[in-house]
Design a protein that fits this description.
Chain lengths: ~325, ~120
């Protein structure tokens, strides 16, 4: 484990360095507080620190304050190691943000035991951060495909529409639906259906740029948001996505299955300032048309060409057919 | 400072404590001695100059560093006398600094050769 030693006394620094290297630490020694702050705030910098109180540039408590101000960094466990031994100093040192306080001259075994305490706390912090990240992931991603879930993908679309209005660029919205997915589920079972959905999610992600957004909108519906998309390239890109889905069978426990997807495409600049939910309804209608025209195809949603409104019941019936 | 260790004087260094502090690492002990020999005279010089100038902040700062250095080397007497200098400086007791400095200089007199002797004797 990496550890920083900050002490202006070269004897103390050398003694600490050797003691800690022998104990298996990867030691970074520095001679003043400014260097200590710089090293501790480096990416992948030490997360354990032994700080002398009186140092040039910034003293030990000053280093603690600086580090505690930076909440975007990993937690750093800091021990003040000083010959200031009054109760007032101990209190002031701990109040500055230090986790522990040791009086010089140190006893090697005690120092190592306290560092192990620090390591335990850092380990605990790592586990908490990991658990929080897992919860954050679960709250924002679809559990089956690991794509963005419906709430997040619609929110991302909302933000992207605002941005495209502000920057006068175009966002393409693509709603895709797996053709005859009900048949797959009915014939091979839900586990095979899940395998198909996972593979389609993977193919969708491979077919878009890293900064585009892909989410699972419903059962077998996927919503893709192409940021800053040139209007003339939206349809070709939707075609690429369609081909990426049907290019080869999906390998499942029931054997290879041919799959395809129908897609509706909408260009935000054709529709003015409309809420995402309305635009999704429009692109859903284009998707319905793609289904009605034989599936495995792409249809562009055009405002003027909407002759008759498509009801939700009609769209559902077409998809289930 | 004299260059000889007086065998009749009590030791300025608790050598068994020092060995425990370095976990019986003789090589480290030699390293520490080298660093001490290089750094210590400059600190003492700074301390004297700060006392002459009645610069209490500087006296407190240098005394504090010397206190840590000497305590790491298990030189308890010298560490205590420089701790007194630090305390006096923090309290602004300018009139007492000179005598405290003399006391400190007496305590460190012969410290370096004694360390060298011990370390030479401790080499495997």
């Amino acid at each position: 484990m990496k550890i920083l030693i900050a002490d202006d006394d070269a004897v103390s620094r050398r003694l600490l360095e050797r003691t800690l290297v022998r104990a298996g630490y990867d030691v970074t020694p520095v001679a003043d507080g400014r260097q200590a702050v710089a090293r501790l705030t480096e990416p992948d910098g030490p997360r354990l620190a032994l700080l002398d109180w009186m140092m040039p540039e910034i003293d030990g408590p000053g280093v603690c304050c600086e580090i505690r101000k930076r909440r975007d960094h990993n937690y750093v466990y800091m021990i003040l190691l000083t010959s200031r031994e009054s109760k007032e100093d101990v209190v002031a040192g701990l109040e500055s943000g230090a986790d522990d306080y040791l009086i010089k001259p140190f006893i090697a075994d005690e120092l190592k035991a306290r560092l192990r305490t620090g390591e335990r706390i850092l380990h605990l912090e790592d586990r908490l951060v990991e658990a929080r990240e897992q919860m954050r992931f679960k709250a924002t991603h679809d559990h089956l495909t690991s794509l963005w879930n419906r709430g997040v993908i619609v929110d991302l679309l909302r933000r992207e529409l605002i941005r495209s209005q502000r920057e006068n660029v175009c966002t393409a919205i693509i709603l895709g639906d797996v053709d005859h997915f009900k048949n797959i589920n009915d014939t091979y079972g839900h586990l095979v259906g899940d395998q198909v959905l996972r593979e389609i999610a993977r193919r969708l992600l491979l077919a878009v740029r890293s900064y585009d957004f892909v989410g699972r909108y419903g059962g077998e519906e996927f919503l893709t948001v192409l940021n800053n998309c040139r209007p003339d390239s939206a349809l070709p890109r939707a075609e690429e996505i369609r081909k990426a889905i049907c290019v080869r069978p999906v390998h499942t426990d029931a054997g290879p299955l041919s799959v395809s997807m129908s897609l509706g495409v909408l260009l935000s600049r054709d529709w003015g300032q409309r809420p995402p939910e309305e635009l999704i309804n429009e692109v859903d209608a284009a998707l319905y048309s793609a289904k009605a025209e034989g599936r495995n195809r792409v249809k562009l949603a055009k405002p003027a060409e909407r002759a008759e409104p498509v009801t939700a019941a009609q769209a559902l019936a077409e998809r289930l057919r | 400072m004299t260059n000889k260790t007086n065998p009749l004087c009590p030791s300025r260094i608790n050598f068994s404590e020092l060995l425990a502090r370095v976990e019986n690492d003789r090589e480290l002990l030699s390293d520490l001695l080298s660093i001490f020999k290089k750094e210590f005279p400059a600190y003492v010089k700074s301390l004297r100059e700060a006392v002459v100038r009645n610069n209490v902040d500087e006296v407190a700062s240098v005394s504090h560093t010397l206190k840590g250095m000497l305590s790491n080397l298990a030189a308890a007497g010298a560490s205590a006398s420089v701790a007194r200098l630090e305390q006096l400086a923090r309290q602004g007791e300018i009139a007492l600094l000179h005598d405290a400095l003399l006391a400190f200089e007496r305590d460190v007199d012969g410290l370096l050769p004694e360390l060298e002797t011990h370390i030479a004797g401790a080499r495997p």
